[in-house]
Amino acid sequence: MKLIFTLIISSLFLNSIAQTKTSGNVSFAFTTQTANGEYSPKHVLAAWVTTSSGTYVKSLKVMAQERIQYLYAWKATSSSDKTDAITGATLNSHQTHNLSWNCKDLSGVDVADGDYKLWVEFTDKDGVGPKQSYTFTKGATLVSLNPADVTNFKSVSIQYTPATNDIASVSSENKYVTVFPNPFSEEVKIVVKDSENNKLYIYNTVGKLVSVLNSTSNTNGSIIFNWNAKNSENQEVAKGIYFYTYKSKKASYSGKLIYVK
Q1: What is the percent of the chain with per-residue pLDDT over 70, rounded to a whole number?
Q2: Could you give the count of Cα atoms lying within 13 Å of 217 in the half-sphere of its Cβ?
Q3: Non-local CB neighbours of 23 within 8 Å, separated by 6+ positions
Q4: 23-162: CATH number
Q5: So what's the architecture of 167-259 in CATH?
Q6: Whole-structure pTM over 0.85, yes or no?
Q7: Domains of the chain by residue range
Q8: What does DSSP say about strands 56-63 and 86-88: parallel, antiparallel, or unpaired?
């Protein structure tokens, strides 16, 4: 009887761990390069999320119309679902894509913590094109990954930032970035120990791009950004949690901002 009780308790404990659902945000950036297909540089493209076992979670971006049938991997996994994804026509050139996922499923519910795969596929011909997947772990710990370049996918960056309610833990999320004050009520300053890029991106908790900031100064190898809690249309945003993302050739950083108004 004691053994059975122990097994039941252990099972409940493991199930509880498996069902932990930390809120968070993922920034996924990558640059595509030609596969020298018959339509190159024109191509169709899809990016999506699955569990580590390959179960479909959500599409992030689908750029295809007439030739969408050639995105074989995406179609097989998603059943052509484009809910909440960025969509559009065939791309005319290869470029850098900056995507964001709020770690929610198609029902708007936080997914369980664990390993997930970010997929990207494109084709520049009437046939199978290159695809690639990248695995990260969603949980209570911030993740920063820069996978090695492969033939058709370069400068990949994955930033996962868990959203906690512990305001005291937010001040600075790594030694290369200083954020102050945070929480903030009027303006926040973000200082990055890098000087290769003069832009910083602000997202809300559902992954929508809120504002693109230009640096205000560059001093002693550090670059400074100031955000006054306004969006790209110069309108004040609602109080709450936001995320910044910075990326250059040698580094990429992501973190949380709290606007308390």
Answers
A1: 88
A2: 4
A3: 103, 110, 162, 163, 205
A4: 2.60.40
A5: Sandwich (2.60)
A6: no
A7: 23-162, 167-259
A8: parallel
CA gap 82, 26 in Å, rounded: 18
Largest pairwise CA distance in the chain: 69
Q: What is the DSSP letter of 237?
A: P
* Whole-angstrom distance, CA of residue 196 vs CA of residue 187: 24
Residue with tokens 């200082």: 191
Which residues does residue 58 pair with via DSSP β-bridges, in sequence order? 49
3-38 pLDDT, tens digit per residue, is 444 444 344 434 444 468 888 888 899 999 999 999
* Predicted confidence band of residue 219 (pLDDT cuts 50, 70, 90): low
Residue-wise pLDDT for 50-76, tens only, equals 999 999 999 999 999 999 999 999 999
Same fold, 23-162 and 167-259: yes
Q: Which residues contact 133 (CB under 8 A, 6 or more apart)?
A: 50, 117, 118, 119, 120
Cβ–Cβ < 8 Å for 245, 254: yes
**How many angstroms separate the CA atoms of 256 and 179, rounded?**
9
